[in-house]
Design goal:
By secondary structure, the protein is an alpha/beta fold. It has a single domain, classed as Cytochrome b5-like heme/steroid binding domain (Flavocytochrome B2, Chain A, domain 1), CATH 3.10.120. 14% of the residues lie in helices and 28% in strands. The strands form two sheets. The protein has a five-stranded mixed β-sheet with strand order 1-7-3-2-6. A two-stranded antiparallel sheet has the order 4-5. The longest helix has 6 residues. The protein starts with a strand and ends with a strand. InterPro entries: Cyt_B5-like_heme/steroid-bd, Cyt_B5-like_heme/steroid_sf. It holds the Pfam family Cyt-b5. It comes from Lactiplantibacillus garii.
Amino acid sequence: MSEATFNQTELAKYDGQAGQPAYVAVDGVVYDVTGIAAWAGGKHHGNLAGRELTAVIDNKSPHGRSVLKKLKVVGQYVAN
């Protein structure tokens, strides 16, 4: 895993807007969703990149955590 560490403020910078990469955090791990077509523009079914989405993926996502295996890990998420 990468040594990069993101808190809420840092993660918010990676929202997939204005040329920025799109990152999301799930269960303490930060994933890069930049090249995923479903995350174009940093948005996916009402969810926004640059956010911590553990509750969303565990409680509302039809695919659950299975899709995370396909994503590049870019760091760790540490709550403020």
